UniProtKB/TrEMBL annotation:
Region ranges (Disordered): 1-22
Keyword line: Membrane, Transmembrane, Transmembrane helix
The name this protein goes by in its record: SPOR domain-containing protein
One Pfam family cited in the UniProt record for this chain: SPOR
The keyword Membrane is annotated on this UniProt entry: yes
KW Ion transport (keyword) present: no
PANTHER family, alphabetized: CELL DIVISION PROTEIN DEDD-RELATED, CELL DIVISION PROTEIN FTSN
Transmembrane segments: 30-50
InterPro entries with a match to the protein in the record: Cell_div_SPOR-domain, SPOR-like_dom, SPOR-like_sf
Cited PROSITE patterns: SPOR
Ranges of biased composition (kind: Polar residues): 10-22
Any one Gene Ontology molecular-function term assigned to this protein's record: peptidoglycan binding
Segments forming domain SPOR: 100-180
Amino acid sequence: MAQHDYINRKPNSNKGKNNKQVSQRKPFPVFLAFAALVLISGFIYGLWYIKTNADPVHVKQVQKQPPITQPVETALEKPRPPEFLEEIKSHEIKVDVKEIKRKGPYQMQCASLRKYSEAEALKAKIAFAGLVAEIRRTEGSNGVWYRVRLGPYDSKRKAESDKNKLKRIHIVGCAIWGWT
């Protein structure tokens, strides 16, 4: 296969192409130019028609009229008698205040692990986030478990705040529930 010299090749070489195809260009959009010319001339004619056929009497009347202004009311409301002020001061408003029942203290459990060393490592990681966790040993039917818990929290909002702190250091899966 022969090598081709693409660098020194002439830009408009017509090798193997029909000369009619290369020299053919798209025609100028005469229709669009004609349509634009018609629209512009129609707009100019419309402006000229409005200017020359305006009623001169009506134009002069509009020019001579002063601007319309609203009359300013100078009469202010009379102040109410002083009894009204006394009535306002002595009036009582009754409002029913409903007390929000707190569901009690909350706790958050982040893990339940088989090995105490793993629970201690998680507790240390939580301590680096600035939170205090505790490890509780529980015995069940399937062996000994070490639970890493935080709390108690007075409100669920505080527990959610600490849960978000733990998520930032990639400790996920913590669950919040009522204190037991």
